[in-house]
Amino acid sequence: MRVFIISDMEGVAGITKWEQVIGGNPHYAEGRKLYTQEMNAAARGAFDAGADEVVLMDCHGAGKGWTFNSLLHEELDPRVTYVVQNEWTEHTETLEEGCDAALFVGMHAMAGSGDGVLSHTVSGTEWHYLKFNGVEVGETGINAALCGTWDTPVLMVTGDEAVCGEAKVLLGEGLTTVAVKKGYGRYSAKHVPPVRAREMIYDGARQALRNLDAVTPYVPRPAEIEVRLHTTAEAEPYRNRDGVELVDGRTVVSKADDWWTAWKRLYL
Ligand SMILES: [Zn+2]
Asked: 67: CA distance to ligand 1 center in Å?
């Protein structure tokens, strides 16, 4: 069994503030330690569920050389391999080679979630909302569609209660979710202590991988991707982009037979 673990940092237990997830900030050192250990917990769970290969991929843009590079290399479980990409959603090879399941760790809720800790979609300042075929989604939706493009089901999502709820609505009741904190707003939360959060994530991963058919791969097809930006200035770069339509001053739409084509036109 081959398992791909895709992750973000904002949904990790103990993390409540931007300062903990922005590279170079004094609080970031603690944040990456918490993050790395949750990834190890998920990987351990996957191995104990029978995985022979576990690939990790950090999708957190921490800034500068820390972007997609927040994991503490020296502390990683020696059995894993891990991808450091340069642009988000650029790496597809692991999925193309074939994965039996994906697990998402440390996810945050979509932009506009009132009780989502550090909630945003792609850009906290530029993106107002994102829709796939008329349904509002967050980064869980993007990563799930990426996995779905290569027929890989997402079996577990961890993060705060808001993202767990969001993920179940999108991916169905068969999804295993592990809520490690409850948000009271964007910058406040009640946490499970990290040591226990890791045990929960370990158990969640092990359990989720017992049934590889629990969730159907998420495949929006044909795909219409709509992004509402905050201001017209942020829409400008899309004005002359092939295959992307500016439907009003700050709303862009990309349509294609499959999600990956529509996404590439819009984002990559
Ligand atoms: Zn992030």
From this structure: 9
**Would you call 233 exposed, middle or buried from its count of C-beta atoms within 10 A (0-12, 13-18, 19+)?**
exposed
Domain ranges, residue 31: 2-127+135-208
Q: Mean pLDDT per 10-residue run, the chain (268 residues)?
A: 98 98 97 98 98 98 97 98 96 98 98 96 93 98 98 98 98 98 97 98 98 98 97 93 94 97 95
The rounded Å distance from CA 196 to ligand 1 centre is 22
**Are residues 256 and 262 in contact, defined by beta-carbon separation less than 8 angstroms?**
yes
Q: Is the pTM value of this prediction over 0.90?
A: yes
Please check whether residue 183 lies inside any domain of the structure: yes
Instruction: Give one DSSP letter per residue of 150-209, joined into a string.
Output: TTPPEEEEEEEHHHHHHHHHHH-TT-EEEEEEEESSSS-EEE--HHHHHHHHHHHHHHHT
